[in-house]
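Q: For a teaching session next week I want to show students how multiple molecules come together into a single three-dimensional assembly. I've collected the sequence lines for a complex. Could you give me the predicted structure tokens for the whole thing so I can convert them for display?
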Amino acid sequence: MLEKNPVIFIILAFVVIMVGTSITMIAPFKWINGPGDMIAEVKPYTPLQQEGRDLYMREGCNNCHSQTVRTLASDVERYGYGGTYSKSGEFVYDRPHLWGSRRTGPDLAHIGLKYPDPKGAWHRKHMENPQSVVPASNMPSYAFLNVPLDTTYSERKMKLLKFPYTQADLNDLKGKSEMDAIIAYMRKLGTDIPVKKADAAATQVLPTASNPFKDVEAIEKDAKSLFSQHCASCHGEKREGTLGPALKGSAKSDADLFKIISQGIEANGMPSFNTSLDEQKIWKIVTLIKLDTK
Amino acid sequence: MNAKTQYYDDSVKGFIIWSLIWGTIAVVVGILISLQLAWPQLNVAPYLTYGRLRPIHTNAGIFGWGIGSFIAMFFYITQRLTKTPLWSPKLARVTLWIFNVAIASAAVTLAMGINRTKEYAELEWPLAIIVAIIWVLFSINVFMTILKRKEEQMYISLWYIMAALVGVTVLYVVNNLGVPLHLFKSYSAFAGTNDANVQWWYGHNAVAMVLTVPPLAIFYYFLPKITGNPIYSHRMGIIAFWSLIFMYLWTGAHHLLWTPIPDWIQTVAMAFSIMLIAPSWGAVMNGYLTMNGQWEKMKSNYLVKFMICGITFYGLQTLQGPMQAIRSFSAFIHYTDWVPGHVHMGTMGWVSMVLFGAIYYVTTTLSGAEIYSVKMANTHFWLVLVGQLIYSITMWIAGVQQGSMLLATNPDGTLHYSFMETMIAIFPYYKIRAVSGFVYLAGLALFIYNIYKTFQKGEESKTAKA
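A: Of course. Below is the structure for the complete assembly, covering every listed component.
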């Protein structure tokens, strides 16, 4: 009968398709984003952050950057930035989700935790000229975002998405550029849930011994290359200081320098490098910085 | 040619020509973005940046080349299998017009940054509605032709065609639901984890209903036509058909392993992905066994080469896919270049190979002429085969290498490589991949020239007879 009646065939095909669809796609609406998923600390986007998110979509950033830290140890270590893996409740205000499918660039779900600087100086420099910060990066330049932000629809967006906002939030949009908005968005990512000190300590590299590199000449080449890759973008190739302070003449002890590089200084915008540099590498950089003082 | 039934083939030809144009654009943009990954200075802000171009590449490939040529083939096959002329030639012509306007508008709006960001559903709501209308108009035309058919039995290809008509409609409409802000911007109807689950239910079944079911319909029709032997087992085809369209819809979450999607959905997706090997290989074996006793045609008949190579890539694709759907393997290769390697074996290998073969066959039928150059068709075959293999193999190597580096840890549990170190390691592969694109494009150029000359030859012989 089926091979002779197309109407019955098409109805049957629809029913067959709907079995898996109902169970794995429709039914989960009952649980996902429900009370069990909600995280009290996670706040909706402000008008400026939502504008930034819309720019992130306009530029198709999701084609190279994912936004989910998987429950894998290496993911948490690399992209958690002191926080933990992504939870469903972090995304309840994301319409659409921006999880992505390819990491040509790093995951950004918790990028707000990496660069604590309130001015977003690193992001600005990086967006304008990625290679000035990460020399081998293949990210395009986004200097063209340095134009005034179009705020025509900002208030309507808040209403449509049912996000709370105040007049002060809207006033905050005045004089902002597209660059300001996208940086505001990136600085928000992952920062709602407070990072527990215990979690943060668990991922930190603490020196187990004193500086093992006494013979500076043997490691100088190595250390310079590390410095150039990780530090020069903010401290200058010759350690003369650009975004960050000059590192010549540092009077700090080896142990202090190690701690700063490993853990960062949040108030100054110095990121922590405990996820990108292992103990040996940090010690090499410390040795190089000290070498300058001689 | 068709003394008994007058078939309407103008729109078949129209859709073939336009799908070739959009397909060429997809490949050219693909080459450009592959070069941009190796040399970022090739990004031209703001319209020609990687982030804006990549959706143009995928949309031109899936909607322009894929759907465009499937529409052509469905019109062609349906008329012949039903022994009935197309229900409405006028509607077919209108569909082609709207199709071209929609694909061109898609390219322009995506370059402008009007982008919903959901993969393979990037088009903003007015265009998404137009795409849905195109599909419905086309579906009505095909379905009405089937309803009015003169041949009572419906061959397996018609089953696959009808399943695609229903499946694509359901998937596309649901995943595109949203709330418009203004003409060029809307927000998804779903949020966060729900949105991700809906997206990959759509994303993976777009692979099923657009990139698997239609090429299978085409394969089942043309392989017997080309070889002159009936398909090995109609029954096996039917069992494979029902299990395929049943199982596919459970597997979307294998794109979301280790994410906040509920674990049971991930596990179910994993299990069904493995089970899918059976129906997929049902089709592959049907193809191979049809070739029993006539394998020498792989040497002598260029069309058989395309068809059998295509179904072989389908077989490999449907072994590799389930492998990637296993949690532990996904942890290793997901988010790396392994995945583009996999995808392009399916698109450049399986789907395009079968379409190349089908288009050659249809071109000779429609033009009434022999193919312009068999030698050129053979060269085309080798260029696309080699281009595709270089692409996929380099990306698999790059994926394994980067995946291993990303997971490598020191004895104290810290990460051994920084992210940039893992990137620097794979840049050489990006350059090789760009070369593979040029090889593939050269093959495509020969193909288009051959098709053009064959149609021209047909016209000449018609005027000569007149």
